[in-house]
Amino acid sequence: MATGESSDALSKPFVIGSIATWLGKKAEESRSHEWTIYLRAANPEEDLSLIVRKVVFVLHPTLQPPTRTIETAPFEVTDQGWGEFEVTLQVYFHDSRDKPIELSHMLKLYPPGEQVNIAGKPVVAERYDEFVFNSPSEGLRQRLLTEAPPSIKGWKHSANGKWFTDFEADAPVESQSLQQIYQVITSELQTASKRRRLLEDELKQLQGQNGL
């Protein structure tokens, strides 16, 4: 999330998202869906509260209360409604000297395109990102570097966990694809460089023959 990353910077992957379930035809019109907005670790067994002190969720002003502070994991808010809206999350870190990081997420209640809501099949909207700490305090640095054992507070144990994207599992495939692309580009650049040197040598020979 931060820019201007320095050589001693540390990062922590995270996922921000929402999951919404249609409550069926018998539900009140104003409460057609139950939804949960959350901030979680990318690692399914990681406890994000090791570095996150609290998350403030700023919801739609028609909801009461519109601002909700969560100080323990899981960092999530659940409610009911009928409309989609943008949620602001203010993330506070342990031992941090910096201001909280502000994130935003669009709550999605309805499936894309012409698809229709199906009771029991939730609509999930997630994105992967990373917190980047350019100059963390010593306390926060230790928290970031500590390898904690698997925790029951990880999203693997969440009731909604089966619907979440396991970005950690997808990472090796993505990394391998990127590595393959890098190798192709590097090979093409090396070929182009050799070709340029040959053309330069040929040009010098022509210039010598013409007395230039």
UniProtKB/TrEMBL annotation:
Amino-acid biosynthesis listed as a keyword: no
Annotated YEATS domain residues: 4-147
Gene Ontology biological process terms in this record: regulation of DNA-templated transcription
Gene Ontology cellular-component terms listed: nucleus
Alphabetical UniProt keywords: Coiled coil, Nucleus, Transcription, Transcription regulation
InterPro entries xrefs: YEAST_sf (IPR038704), YEATS (IPR005033), YEATS_dom (IPR055129)
Main location: nucleus
Pfam families to which the protein is assigned, alphabetical: YEATS (PF03366)
Keyword presence, Hydrolase: no
Subcellular location: Nucleus
Coiled-coil annotated residue ranges, if any: 182-209
Name of the protein this chain belongs to: Protein af-9-like protein
Upper taxonomic lineage: Eukaryota, Haptista, Haptophyta, Prymnesiophyceae, Prymnesiales
